[in-house]
Amino acid sequence: MNNIRSEKVASWFFLSPILFIHFFVIAFPSILSLALCFTDWNGFGKIQFIGFQNFQELFSDRVFKKAVWHNLIWTIFFLTVPIAVALLGAFVLTGVKRFQLLYRFIFFFPYILASVVNCLIWKYLFHPKYGLNTFFDDLGITFFENSLLTQKETSLLAVGFVDAWHFWGFLVVIYITAMYQVDESLYEAAEIEGASKWQKFRYVTFPSIRPMFVFSILIIMIWSVPAFDYVYILTGGGPAYSSEVLANYLHFQAFRNMNVGYASAIGALMFVYVFIITGLFGLLRKLDWEI
Amino acid sequence: MFFISRLKKFPIANHVILSILALIIILPVTILLFNSVKPKAEIGINPLGFPHEMRFQNYSDAFVKANYAKVFFNSFILVVGTLFLCIPLSGAAAFSLAVMKSGKRLTPLVGLYLLVGLSIPAQLYILPLFILWKFLHLNNSFLGLIIIYTALNAPFAVFLIRSYMLQLPQELFEAARIEGASNIQLFIKIAVPLSWPVFLTSGLIVALAVWNEFLFAVTFIYDDSIKPISTILFAFSDRFKNDYALISASAVMMALPMIILFVLFQRNFIVGLTSGSMKS
Description:
The complex is a heterodimer. Chain A contains 13 helices and no strands. By secondary structure, chain A is mostly helical.
């Protein structure tokens, strides 16, 4: 009996240091934040409980609504373009033997570069005086005449493109790992039936990698909400809020305006969204939806 | 016939697609590399092409102007400090979850806790954390940021190390237990030496994450003298807006240590980054 108890103490002895740090840095401030979102605290003065007023204000905040909309566009963009290109890349990669490791190395490469470095690269390439424009202008293509980052119509997608350029190699790697686990005999059977490449992909590859595909959708939906680095570094949310997203707006409200309560309300809404998405996927999995 | 079989071994259509995708990655990176060795004046005339004249002095210029020796040192301290705090403590927690009997029973509970922690967007807690750190005089200091980085990377490291330790032969631990070894001895003398590959992998991933981290660095460190390289480069690119040669050289210097590690340990990186996120 005593032995069991000492074993219990010992296992907590090993667990608790890292859990304590984690709780102190992440869980405790998160709980604080969930409480502060019902107050009008500015970080210094008195804390006053104001109920749902922050949320009411948020729902009539023009910039907040814009940011929500932009996060939605961002998510849809990431769910389509990088996933499609990565599926293509991974599928084609499984068809080649030579240089395969080299290609994989190259595709994954931007993922290990810092966001600051990637942003520098593309800020330069979008620069009308130096970047892509100097090349395309000679060909009579005026698409890059002004930096895509400084125009209201294109800024959001230009930032999204740079982030996706850095991120899609990650998708290639997880898809190709799944594709190599597909039963080879299925392909042979498809070959005998005379299936085309597309049919092989549609009826053999894709159903087999579906769990990984669903996983990639889940992480994109979760990671798209707190997207911050690329927006902050490339455009700062501008011009005229045309690339403003929730994380950047929260950072602005928190550290420029010192609106602690208001910023916490945005954070709380982001958390609720992520919580619902994760819960939904967990539920679907529990219900054996074969995802 | 011979030609067709050759063609099958080297499917041209596939390589065309893959080369185009590869070029979309390679060209922008190469242009950065070219610009980093061009004289400042050449960039206006030859913004995208191969440098006519190599000027490696850009690197030493950037090194002096941005005080890179100090900046590198700052980032280095953050990386090493986080590694020393995060990896042993995560390893201990993983050991408890994977090897110890009552620790195993705690796995669902601890796993759920870390999972919920992972799904919290940093923006939810960054502001209260900032106020808390200010109160404890931990903001604007290496130690404060190291503690934060340790917490941020802990779930990933715990999950990754645990899954490796689960595959260790349990009889080894049983035998040592019968011999009267304590848990600490089991951890230090058996679990750690046998799990060194996963310690290497998680160490590399944590080092990469800390070296590249931006959000917490830009929020918690505001004295130029202790800023890490990511935020210095960000400030630098603003200050020397028109000197792309200098900026490019600094960017290459920031990327280089991680590129070297990536080339040396490519497999560890890819497996760690992908399986780490899947396990969590």
